[in-house]
């Protein structure tokens, strides 16, 4: 009875925090580690964001919901240790939201021994009234709304370079995006590592997306047989046997995980970009897509938005709006 009473009190405290917006559920920018990556796959803590909860939507490698450590005596990694660990970490995008972490670890273990893995930005059922962390533990996950992202930490830094070869390989039915993990946005803004940007000369802006469009749908749009007709530059044969698409970024609402109607696509070659422009106006989910090259104005606007978001991270817990990813 005592344990049940403690659990009820803990749940009440969690509900109060959720109502106050602490921590708010901020969607991370792909390729960016928002805080500390722990050896054992535990919660992420970011001093730049003032995040005391470690993210409600985080899953640890053992399948349990991540969050604040019960062991308060456990010390955080030093900046030097965190920087070293960052060199051993990869970002994995477009991960099926219900992907078991054991499967994820097994997939990347062929590139080197995996120390830990964790999921972030897991889309839970919007009808669920329980806190997000609890909803994830109860498997109240809506994988039809958005994919999740993951961070995989290797034992050796050399494994990261090998794992980059998995970019756009199929995992659980999705073509995953694999990149080196980047520092938090604020830290990266003042260094040469200022985020993993898409090469604008090989990128397209995609507008008029249906708000339920998934990353995988956009990848398939540019790689399906219909798209390849008359566009040999989009064929795998013209791209080293790999898909012409190298990466996709769809901007999403942090509260619902639904996209905001636009995104960016990175291609392997400039020739593939020119070929993809011929698909302008073709429908996806019954909506004609608007395909244009990424303009200087768009790039500058996104840079300003990202800088503002990075500055807002110093104002307290994660209650800021989603920062727009750069192309």
From TrEMBL:
Primary localisation category: nucleus
UniProt KW tRNA processing keyword: no
Gene3D superfamilies reported for this sequence: 3.30.70.330
Composition bias, Low complexity: 1-11
Any one Gene Ontology molecular-function term assigned to this protein's record: RNA binding
Keywords in alphabetical order: Nucleus, RNA-binding
Domain RRM positions: 88-183, 202-296
Extent of Basic and acidic residues compositional bias: 68-83
UniProt GO cellular component terms: nucleolus
Subcellular location: Nucleus, Nucleolus
Region called Disordered, residue ranges: 1-83, 302-327
Family: Belongs to the RRM RBM34 family.
Name of protein: RRM domain-containing protein
């Amino acid at each position: 009875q005592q344990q049940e009473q403690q659990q009820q009190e803990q749940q009440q405290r969690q509900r109060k925090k959720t109502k106050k917006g602490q921590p708010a559920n901020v969607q991370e920018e792909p390729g960016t580690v928002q805080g500390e990556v722990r050896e054992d796959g535990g919660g992420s803590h970011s001093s730049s964001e003032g995040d005391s909860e470690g993210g409600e939507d985080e899953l640890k490698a053992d399948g349990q919901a991540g969050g604040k450590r019960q062991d308060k005596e456990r010390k955080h990694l030093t900046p030097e240790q965190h920087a070293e660990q960052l060199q051993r970490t990869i970002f994995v995008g477009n991960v099926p939201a219900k992907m078991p972490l054991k499967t994820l670890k097994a997939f990347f273990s062929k590139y080197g021994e995996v120390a830990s893995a964790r999921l972030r930005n897991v889309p839970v059922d919007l009808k669920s009234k329980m806190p997000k962390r609890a909803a994830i533990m109860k498997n109240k996950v809506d994988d039809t709304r958005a994919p999740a992202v993951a961070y995989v930490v290797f034992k050796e830094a050399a494994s990261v370079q090998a794992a980059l070869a998995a970019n756009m390989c199929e995992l659980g039915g999705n073509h995953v995006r694999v990149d080196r993990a980047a520092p938090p946005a604020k830290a990266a803004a003042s260094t040469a590592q200022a985020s993993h940007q898409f090469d604008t000369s090989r990128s397209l802006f995609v507008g008029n997306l249906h708000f339920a469009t998934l990353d995988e749908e956009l990848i398939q749009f540019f790689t399906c047989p219909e798209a390849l007709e008359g566009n040999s530059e989009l064929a795998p044969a013209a791209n080293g046997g790999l898909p012409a698409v190298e990466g996709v970024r769809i901007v999403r609402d942090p509260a619902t995980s639904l996209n905001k109607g636009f995104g960016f696509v990175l291609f392997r070659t400039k020739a593939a970009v020119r070929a993809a422009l011929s698909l302008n106006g073709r429908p996806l989910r019954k909506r004609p897509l608007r395909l244009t090259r990424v303009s200087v104005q768009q790039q500058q606007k996104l840079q300003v938005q990202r800088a503002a978001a990075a500055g807002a991270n110093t104002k307290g817990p994660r209650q800021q709006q989603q920062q727009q990813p750069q192309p």
